[in-house]
Every structure is written in structure tokens, then in C-alpha cells.
Specification:
18 strands; 399 residues; 12 helices; single chain; alpha/beta; 26% strand; globular; six-stranded mixed beta sheet; seven-stranded mixed beta sheet
Length: 399
């Protein structure tokens, strides 16, 4: 199906990570001609493990990709919490910490989910890599888009699925800072050699205001390393300066023991070091005219909730279904926001400013957290289906 024969119209989606390909899948099913533009030169592989939980499991089941995700399921077996000196504070089953449901939810590397989504739609949807939206000009009949490459095209609708620092959101609804809710933490993520013999497990180290984690996915020779810390104000001045980011992390963890010096040293040389603030996006409206937002661009919950990918998948389903169920985009965008906002807000409310259970900021809070962990089990929780998996059934897909 091409733009000339599409009975529903044309849609440009910015972003090819999770929300973008997911909404492209559903829009194509409903009869839209979809183009996905991605600023990276190709599909971004790798990435730390993410969860697909609750309602999102039902979404991927309806997409037909749940069996593939179940095959890729990581099956982490334990989380060991450590004191500042490296001694053991508690050992628990991962599901007891995340609140997931054994046998229902799945955990996969982010890159695996992105690849499966891409493979599901790549033959049905146009993908344009190594390009991005430069300007948007809306008029009565559509949106004229100028791309960084110099190309110019017109679309009926534009959807921003381009993440926490969304360019689409900035162009259509204004600067990020007015929607940015800083939660009081910063983090750095990178990979490092698994010289510790870890397998299917997480080591989580804490001292007040700082945390570190080593995450072993299966029996890999590589670990995902996390360094997290409190910071009173968002360090906007370092967000575009990789050297300044590394210097900030180094200074923050300078006096810590255990494996922290080795982790910091690896961070400086790692090819995939990623730094950002722990933040949420909270907006009064997720759309403006013919432009709408989805996933982190509209309602990033922060990685501390573990719900970012699930919100992206559910949001993609809800937005595409709303467009299929309503005759015009204005009514569709309003229905998407009305029907999805409660789900979004309940997930965002899982963590507030400076109160993340994984990163207590005081010795008293840390001890209280550890005592609670010691009361949890190392066995998997009972299997079953979680609440809130009821998704609306939108009109039958056009194809």
C-alpha cells in the first residue's frame, strides 16, 4: 500500500525505537500509509533489559510477537543487594522487587524488542534512517515537513515517538523544560566485561544518595553497568558534553569502594556510555493540531518505574485505535488522551522526587529499605495475570 492508495491518509512517525514501530504496525493495519524517520543511521541494537508488563503483554499478544519475546525472555534469578563495603544486605527474587508476574511478564534487552518490532513492520512501512524532522508547517489539509537532509514532504498527520528529548514535541508544543519533571537523580549506563562470573542476576550496591548495579543477562561475557546518584538540580550544562558527564560521575563516586573504581574506569573507555537525568515528562495535552506525541515524548515515566516500554506499547495501541475509531484527528487525539491518561498517571506516580526505593538518600531510609528487602522471598511470586490488562477492542483492522 502506498500513499496514493491509502484510504485513511499518510502519517509520519518520528522515532524507530519502541513506540514508533509499534504505532506504525497498528496504523498500517488500520489502512494508513506510514513513514518512520529515525535520526540514527540504522536500528539501534543493544541496550539494557526492559520489562513488558500487564496491559503491554496483551498488546504484543495481539501483534503476534509475544512468542518471540517469550523465547528471548532473560529469566533473571536473583538480585543481591550490597552494603557500601560490598557485604550482602539482602537477596531477593527479581519479581519481588519489580512487582512483575512470573509466567506472564517478559524481560528482554531493549534492542531485542526494537528489532522484533522493526522486523514485524519493515516490509509494510517506509523507514528513513539517518534523517530527522527539521521544521513542521501545519495547514488546513496537512503538515509540510522539512527534513535535516533537505528533503521536503507533506503528511496528513505527524506523530512524535522520539523520546524524552523529543524534537517533535519542541516544534509542536514548545521547549522541553516546561514539561520536564526532574526526579533528583542522574545516571550513567554502559557495558563492561563480565569478569565476576555473574549469570542471570543483578548485584545492586548502595550508599546513601548513590547506587551502582551490575546486570548479567544470561551467561554473557558482558555486563550492563549502572551508576546512579542524587543531584540537587538537573545538570543541564553537561547534557551535551560527554567529557563533563564522565567527570561529574567520577567526582561523585571518587571516595567509594567495592567495584566502583573499576566501574568508573570502564565508563571512561566504554564505547556505549549513556548519561541522562532521571526525569518524567508531564504535559496537559499530548497533541497540537495535526501533531500528537506517544511514549516517552508525551509521558516518560522514568526508568525507575520500569514501565517506559510498556507505556509506549500501550500508548501506540491506544493512539492508533483512536484514529481508527474516529472520523477526524481532533476527536481521535482527544479520545486517545482521555482513555490513556489514567493509566499513564498511575504509572508515573510509582516514583516521586527523591524517593526512589532503589536509591535511598539517607542512611535511615537505606536501612529501612534493606530491612524490608530481607522480609521478601528468594522464590518466584505466584504465577498469574495482573490486574488492568483489559484493553478496548477497536474497529476491525482495515487489513
Amino acid at each position: 500500500m502506498n500513499a496514493k492508495t491509502a484510504p485513511k491518509g499518510t502519517v509520519l512517525v518520528s522515532g524507530a525505537s519502541i513506540a514508533g514501530p509499534a504505532v506504525a504496525y497498528w496504523l498500517h493495519r488500520y489502512g494508513y500509509a506510514v513513514t518512520v524517520v529515525e535520526k540514527s543511521t540504522g536500528l539501534r541494537g543493544g541496550g539494557y533489559p526492559i520489562d513488558v508488563r500487564g496491559s503491554a503483554v496483551e498488546v504484543v499478544r495481539r501483534m503476534g510477537i509475544l512468542p518471540r519475546l517469550q523465547e528471548a525472555h532473560i529469566e533473571s534469578r536473583r538480585v543481591t543487594f550490597l552494603n557500601a563495603d560490598g557485604s550482602e544486605a539482602a537477596v531477593v527474587h527479581p519479581q519481588a522487587v519489580t512487582g512483575g508476574v512470573e509466567g506472564h511478564d517478559v524481560e528482554v534487552p531493549r534492542g531485542v524488542l526494537a528489532e522484533i518490532l522493526y522486523e514485524t513492520v519493515r516490509d509494510e512501512v517506509e523507514f528513513v534512517f539517518d534523517d530527522s524532522i527539521e521544521t513542521l508547517t501545519e495547514h488546513e489539509h496537512g503538515v509540510d515537513v522539512a527534513f535535516r537532509s533537505g528533503a521536503q514532504r507533506g503528511f496528513d498527520l505527524v506523530l512524535g515517538a522520539d523520546g524524552l528529548h523529543s524534537r517533535t514535541r519542541e516544534l509542536a508544543l514548545g521547549p522541553e523544560r516546561q514539561f520536564h519533571r526532574y526526579l533528583g537523580y542522574c545516571f550513567s549506563i554502559f557495558t563492561m566485561p563480565n569478569t565476576y562470573g555473574l549469570s542471570h542476576e543483578v548485584l545492586f550496591w548502595n550508599t546513601p544518595g548513590r547506587a551502582a548495579a551490575l546486570y548479567a543477562v544470561r551467561d554473557s561475557n558482558e555486563l550492563y553497568a549502572f551508576l546512579n546518584f542524587t543531584h540537587p538540580e538537573p545538570p543541564y550544562e553537561v547534557l551535551r558534553d560527554p567529557k563533563a558527564q564522565r567527570d561529574l560521575v567520577t567526582a561523585t563516586f571518587a571516595d567509594d569502594g567495592w567495584e566502583i573504581p573499576a566501574m568508573v574506569a570502564t565508563m571512561h573507555d566504554a564505547h556505549d556510555t549513556f548519561f541522562d537525568t532521571v526525569s518524567q515528562i508531564r504535559m496537559p495535552s499530548w497533541s497540537s493540531g495535526r501533531v500528537a506525541l506517544i511514549g516517552d515524548a508525551a509521558y516518560a515515566p522514568s526508568f525507575l518505574t520500569g514501565q517506559g516500554s510498556s507505556l509506549a506499547l500501550v500508548g501506540a495501541y491506544m493512539l492508533a485505535g483512536s484514529l481508527a475509531a474516529h472520523r477526524d484527528h481532533t476527536a481521535a487525539f482527544a479520545a486517545y488522551q482521555h482513555d490513556t491518561r489514567g493509566f499513564v498517571e498511575s504509572n508515573q506516580a510509582q516514583v516521586g522526587e527523591g524517593d526512589a526505593a532503589l536509591i535511598p538518600t539517607t542512611a535511615e531510609a537505606l536501612e529501612k529499605r534493606n530491612n524490608k528487602l530481607r522480609g521478601l522471598t528468594t522464590s518466584p511470586p505466584p504465577t498469574g495475570r495482573p490486574a488492568h490488562t483489559d484493553l478496548p477492542n477497536f474497529p476491525a483492522p482495515w487489513r
